[in-house]
């Protein structure tokens, strides 16, 4: 779940099965009610996902800090709101850095205030116990799809940052001005270079950034907030 957690490679048949489940989705289930935890875990595993259960948020945070190797794949957290020690809302605050794992709240006693607080902080869903199986699995599927989107976006950003590092200072200046809507002639006048040289730097930058059009270049510069 953690962004910097090392990736684990399967070495046994059991590992391969676990890796396949994690590739489909890993659900971290936190509830101090052992019976509910067991029922939800069985349901989640029957759907083909990997499921890790914890009796408290504290236990989960402890394993998270250990940064143990994990199989890659999307991940979400399914957490009861009302728990001793650290409740669901406090856990949400402590998980703020781990954007890849969307959070779903489940509760049997919390009111509208907790739901509003959770949603404002980014919770994907707020389910009321007893939760229908189809409703639970739909929420999990939605959260895992969001996790996949976030992981892909983070990986893409990492690639783009590496490509940006290949740009020369002049190439960076040129594409920044292209993104601002300046023409080649205007860029050349501002930088004291001829128009042909502007085109040369722009083309080099586009090749390094793996974009094929000026429109793509502008979008990328805006996305990276250069």
UniProtKB/TrEMBL annotation:
Residues 160-225 form the HTH luxR-type domain. GO terms for biological process: phosphorelay signal transduction system; regulation of DNA-templated transcription. InterPro entries: CheY-like_superfamily, Sig_transdc_resp-reg_C-effctor, Sig_transdc_resp-reg_receiver, Tscrpt_reg_LuxR_C, WH-like_DNA-bd_sf. SMART domains: HTH_LUXR, REC. Pfam families: GerE, Response_reg. The keyword Zinc does not apply. SUPFAM superfamilies: C-terminal effector domain of the bipartite response regulators (SSF46894), CheY-like (SSF52172). It comes from Chromatium okenii. Residues 26-144 form the Response regulatory domain. It comes from the Bacteria. One of its GO terms (molecular function) is DNA binding. This is DNA-binding response regulator. The modification 4-aspartylphosphate is found at residue 80.
């Amino acid at each position: 779940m953690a962004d910097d957690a090392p990736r684990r490679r399967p070495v046994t048949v059991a590992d391969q099965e676990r890796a396949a489940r994690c590739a489909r989705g890993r659900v971290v289930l936190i509830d101090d009610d052992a019976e509910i935890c067991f029922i939800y875990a069985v349901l989640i595993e029957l759907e083909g996902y990997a499921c890790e259960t914890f009796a408290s948020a504290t236990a989960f945070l402890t394993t998270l800090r250990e940064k143990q190797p994990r199989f890659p794949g999307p991940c979400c957290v399914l957490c009861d709101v009302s728990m001793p020690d650290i409740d669901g809302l406090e856990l949400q605050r402590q998980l703020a850095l781990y954007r890849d794992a969307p959070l779903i709240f489940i509760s049997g006693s919390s009111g509208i205030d907790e739901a509003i607080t959770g949603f404002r902080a980014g919770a994907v869903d707020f389910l009321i116990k007893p939760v229908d199986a189809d409703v639970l699995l739909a929420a999990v599927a939605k959260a895992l799809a969001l996790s996949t989107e976030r992981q892909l976006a983070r990986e893409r950003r990492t690639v783009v940052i590496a490509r940006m590092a290949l740009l020369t200072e002049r190439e960076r200046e040129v594409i920044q001005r292209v993104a601002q809507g300046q023409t080649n002639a205007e860029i050349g006048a501002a930088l004291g270079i001829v128009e042909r040289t502007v085109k040369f730097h722009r083309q080099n930058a586009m090749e390094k950034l793996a974009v094929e059009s000026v429109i793509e270049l502008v979008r990328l510069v805006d996305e990276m907030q250069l």
